[in-house]
Fold each of these.
Amino acid sequence: MHNSQSSDDSGSDFDQEDVVLSNPNASELYEVYESALRTRVREDVVNPLVSQVPGVEVTDTGAVIEDTYLVTYDAENYLVDDIDTYSVSGSNVVETDGEKQAVGLSFNTEPYGVFTIYGDEYTLSANEQSFLATVEFLKSPSKYLEIDSFETEVYAAIQEAKGEPLHRADIEKIAETAHVTHFVDPKSGLVHRHDIDKHVLRSSFQVASWVVDELTYSSFDHSGLAELAYREKEFRNADRAVFFDGSSNDDDEKWDQINSTEKNAPCPPEVYRRLQSMYGSK
């Protein structure tokens, strides 16, 4: 009998996976397991990686970026501080409950992918890819929304000439696929229910990067445009080129365009109060 059983076992076409998956309960468990692998974010894997990014602090709840954004371990992001939020209603703004996440982000990820980061290979789930790409994107959003390709190419050439390694190149490529559905400006509290590059000062008015760096408010937000209008006299008399398209600093047509657009881009009341206290009336 023993020999017969051995013979049957050795001659069968037994397929363990087919047997397991033919059991409904086992199949459900396997799907749960597969889903867990796809959506997991292993702290012991991602934390050492993001901790090497300047301006990022690892906490028990996730990665904090420049004391402004928290990216949680389920790859969602929130503002660190609770602020009043507003949305545009006609030519005014009204208080609103805002959005669940600070920035509605999605990326082109793989179910599982092998990536080289800081010289080592990692097999990352889709959520781990999203977590790392979200940190990368929120750390330097303008890097991934850059409209001046010449500057981007020059920066890359300088990096190459200096021999700077692209430690996070694989993750940067994912960050480049970012799709934004909404965002809450962390300084003004204005909720934008559209992509972040809809009205960027650099793309809309060809404002030089040094001007953007000088602004208190974001160049992606109505408040940045308002600040630019409030500081018109200052920038008209600047020693450096304010616009990178060759327009002179005191180009009346350019400033008329800026002021006309600003009138149709309302800001929260506190923004206007602060700008008036800092720069006086327009």
Amino acid sequence: MRDNCESCHESYSTDNLSKCVCGRDLCYSCLARHQVMCKIKHGQLNILDIFDAAVDAQFTHAIEQHPAVAKYTSKTTAEVYKGNVFLQPDWRLYEFHIPLLHYKQCFSFRPDKQQSIDAFVNYEIANITKLNQPALRDSQNTVPFFSLPSLDWQPVPTSETAGLIQAFRFYLRDVEPQGEIRFLSTPLSFYANSRLIAVHSTHFKPAHKWMYFLEARPVNGNTQYYTLNGLSAPIHDCNKILPVQINENNVLDYLCFFCFFIQSEDGSFYVIPHSKDPALPDFMWKETYIHNNKPLDLTGLYKPPRLIESAENTFLCEATMYCGNSLSTVEMEVDTTGMCTIKSSVDHCLTLPYRLLISLS
């Protein structure tokens, strides 16, 4: 006797058809993948049944062969297969999760276990490749890295440069006589009687480095210079002799200023002032990454700095912050004495391929 497989509908001898627990008569080729779907549907199959030692070995071999990977570890539970990819050279951690539902969705398009596993491996390899740090050529910036729409960088008059070289001699002592030194300055809306001075030399390493100094001219006192070297002390010291003047019109500029010149071991807490900001390479704005199994698009996530609300002595602001390899949306409180405090933070990704390095000291 002959009958048709209820999946592929081919005609087979009844001896070559088997009945699934769900009651369907299937050929040998269709039975295996159909039983997997049945077990998933009826809760009889978990991730441990799928991601066994052989599958884990396949993931490990494929991922550790990638030149961007330093180490790979994994963990499997009944609900999810979790991979931990440590990227070199800085050991950033990229995590991915494959829950049972995700596997079921993939299996429905590729009704073969090996094809499904291969698809997952290739997908994660593609994600890892996107996170690989690109080789970017160090360029010599012609303008200071710190920039805001309200800033107007202008060359310092030649008559003043000798005095500035003397004032900053400790930082310029290694500059060769033939090395070019450039001085630019700009007023700051939140400091009266002051200016921000940027210094660049062809001798500086890396080539894009600029040094920054706050020049404070108190009404009753001598001119003071504060080196903006990534520590908060110079800004707070300046605020003591030259009170900062923060209001609703300039609080966002002060927030960007403060966060740029205060650094942690990961670098500046860079507030991205506008979309497509050139401080980040073009590919960062164009590429879509994966974080927690969800697409991450910098252009879509970006929120420009904005004032949420103001009180008697404080301002609550929202901004998109880039620090090291991480991207976050933060709410920060700025008070009228110049203190900035992070009130809340939503981390979007901690393993982005571009590390923002701002050399201050």
Amino acid sequence: MREYRASKLAKIIAIIGAPPICGSFGFVLFQLYTADPAEIPTWIYFVATPIFVGLGGIGLVALIEVFFSKLVVDAEKIYTTGPLPRRKIMLSDIKGYRTDERNRIIIESRNPRDKKIRFSGLLEHADELAAWLYKNYPNLDALAARKQMEELTGNTALGFTATERETKLVTARKLALVTNILSFVAIIAMGILPAFYKYFVALFIAGPVVLLAVLKMGNGLIRIGIDKKNEYPSVFVAIGFMMLALILKGTALNIVDHSNAWLPAAGFGIAYFIMFASVTEEYFFKGTDKVAKSVTAAFMVLAYGSYSVLLINCVYDTSAPQLYSTVIVNKHAHTTVEHITNYEVEISEWEGGKKRMNVAKSLYDSLAVNDRVKIYRRAGVLKIPWVELSK
């Protein structure tokens, strides 16, 4: 029998990393509950509280797991022990192994009732355990890649000869690469060409929808390709970049009243999610190892739909603004866990009610406390009132 425990390095990382990570979740909740209730919709409290409390709890359990769990290999089985539920796979049932995005090795069983067993290089003598697997069991990633390439090069729908099919595959890969690069170039261009801002917004709203429609109606050669090990040409980077750019632009908007936003935002978000899921159905809700990807993609797609509605409402608004004047009472910049810096100013009471506003970095740097500023309130294309602040 051989036992494997977390290495000293893993324990040091856990001790150093767990407290600030768990503390950050608590800090977010502290900020939420000490903020002005008039500026935060009630539903955010009900959604954010269980999410961040749960994340903090997961971090605490993970810390305990590092110190008290172990992986054991005996003559008949491989299994884990510790605070979390035990996992066991009989050696005769081991189907093989694969690696994930974090280079952890995953041991899979032929028995569908057995849960997968994972370990990383932060396990003591992990190289010894990995060598044992390499010697005795197949690499499932290599087998899957070989099978996928055989399907691609053997698909007669792509051509009658192997040469014709391979030519189409090479062309599809080049097309996917160009599409991904152009999306990145468009994001850079949006930042340096403000005069064309409304056209870039239209591109980022329509672009992912058009790409998904093309993929849905195509021959299946080019795909979204969330899985990095997918042999199919992928445009995930293009769609992801455009969605992320649009979401970040949407978070900078200053919406006064969200009452008229919920219905169109939910409708667009759900419609886009259904379309996205139908194109990437092989990745959604199939296996516990893909739950995190599914949930992340779902949140991103729904956020993309919501902020698309808000950007349409504000960017293409031609209504006459109402002008107000007020004073800066405070300003602060804060960086999110994604290393994105938000610039915010707090203003004195005015008729619009909204006291905190997001501003661009250039405007933030030019403002000081007690400076007088102008506020332009507009009705919005979709009747969602919003405001802009200027000197």
